[in-house]
Amino acid sequence: MRILTSLLIFTCFSILFTSCGVNSNIMFQNSDVEVITENIPISPNDSYRLAPDDKITFLLFVENGKMIIDVSSGIGGQVSGGQQLGATNSIQYLVRNDGSVEFPMLGLVNVSGLTIIEVQEKLSKLFSVNYIDPFIQVEVTNRRVIVFPGNGGDAKVIPIQNDNTTLMEAIALAGGIAERGKANVIKVIRQTEDGRKVYQIDLSTLDGLKYADMIVQSNDYIYVEPTKQLTREFLKEVTPIVSIISSAILILSIFTTIN
Q1: What is the SS3 assignment for 233?
Q2: Which CATH superfamily is domain 55-140 in?
Q3: What is the mean pLDDT of residues 222-227?
Q4: I want to staple 47 with a disulfide (CB 3.0 to 4.6 A). Which of 10, 62, 115, 193 is the partner?
């Protein structure tokens, strides 16, 4: 009898301990961090600025890009011009931790904190020493956002190929909101000059359309909070424990009967 009582007590404590881990995969739950729900910025206040670990490509043409016009209009050098365009654009350059990039002929050039246009102007000025009226085009190739659509196993890294990629587009590229996801609790977590900011958006009603066109920025976290499944998760955690205890009680009962 004492053994049965001990097993029951052990079962109760095991269930209580296990219940602490129910829905433990839910991330970014509110604490003391301010969550912004009103006056959420739709468009960025400034153009994207390069930062360490960015990867960029650049195109350089002389005479203010005359070759591009010639190739597009079919005026000579169609094959060689097209091949040069593709070959130049395939080389990627890494922004180092100190904000510099090593360019051919120029060496290390500091680009951290500069917009794409500012980098193009800076490179154009530097290359003008060796080239006549250089025309520069720069592109950041590894901008991305991370989307958690409401089910932890479905998180995706979405490349930003369009400067005006919206929140709705990013969620669509991730496969939409998961069955478990809460459309009324979508958090956009963004690094700003003032630290991390958390914007919470409700897309469950048509009133939320005003924020559906919010422009996402590189390295944003888009987190759709999943619905808590208390019963399912609790049974999933408790069933193995109950099974072991039941087997132990059954074996103990058999030995008790034999004796």
Answers
A1: helix
A2: wza like domain (3.30.1950.10)
A3: 88
A4: 115
